[in-house]
Amino acid sequence: MRIVMSTVIGVLVCATLVFAAQDRIRLIGIHDPVTPVTAHFVHRHLEAAAHQGDRLVLIEMDTPGGLDTAMREIVKDVMASPVPVVVYVAPSGARAASAGAVIALAADVCAMAPGTNIGAAHPVSLGEKPDKTMEAKVVNDAEAYAEGIAHKRGRDEALARRMVRDSISLSAEKALEGRLIDLIARDRGDLLRQLEGRSVSRDGRQLVLHLAGAEQVPADMGSVERVLNAISNPNVAYVLMMLGMMGLFFELSNPGVILPGVIGGISLILAFFAFQALPVNYAGVLLILLGLILFIAEIKVVSHGMLTLGGMIAMVLGSLMLFESSEPYLRVSWSVILVTVLAVAGFFGVVVTKAVAVHRRRPTTGREGLIGLEGKAESGINPDGKVFIRGEYWDAGSDEPIDAGSRVTVEAVDGLRLKVKKIL
What pTM, to 2 d.p., does this model score? Predict the structure, then answer.
């Protein structure tokens, strides 16, 4: 009897946990450019929603676009999700542009807040501009991709094609009128009220949404995802690359310091990770390297500032060329470039100044360190005698007679014999 009761209680507890897991709406926010990190974040939470039996996944979006490969990963995950997925472009003033527009088309329900826009999904090449034939292939592929998604979700295929081909962007009202989206909602609460009882098609069957009383659970990025997402910013990637180069330079010029080499290596690896999500132009990287080489050469060669000026010009041009894109969010800002270049140039300027000062400082040891020192003639010098200099007695000679006790200065050193002259 006790075993039967334990079994019944266990079943009831499991049923309660499953029911509780189903009374949940998972909230995913996409508020940055679409990158591989974003794709991993969405994939992880869509899988978790499926395993935990969530009622709905709500993706709140405000993005300027992003990488085609990351977008396609998200689209595949959204369309394969057993849990209904709603994309909500919000709040007012937000946008689902470029890659974000295609992701929105792939959702079971696409909603927008008033004052938002969707579209401008024409593909933008990264790095060098392709020839016309290749560009036409890319555009045709993206157009067919958007059309196929719109057809599967029952949206206007002609408008989906025009978003890609003609880069059109539509307001929420125009998108609803053109059957590109399903509804307009003022806020999340209004959206959930409109979704209550709505039917969506999942795997050939109709699924009615019952969302009343469901708990809204935000899906947060993990600590690693947050770090990787942050360094995918062009400004951060640029600074990391500069830190990496500077750190490795210090380690190679001063072997054994260790810390600059460790920091430089980590910074470069993180920068290279970010570069896979950015339109890197390697001519820009080479110009930045040339700028650093010219700065270093200024330390070794006195060019009266010409090498430093050339290094600054090379670094500014390389920084401007580093990320070649028409999209502002894929370029390094002018302020970051100027601050970084001035900081690097200022640092090397200080190093050059110190190096020149060291070269100009008179020697204090060895034979050269004796020249110019003052002392006293211990005996008469005519032409040879003894002098007392810096606590030591030396044999000395002079071209002119010097009386004992006179002040003398060293003119030259010949082995262990000094040539001196009288201080008048």
Answer: 0.69
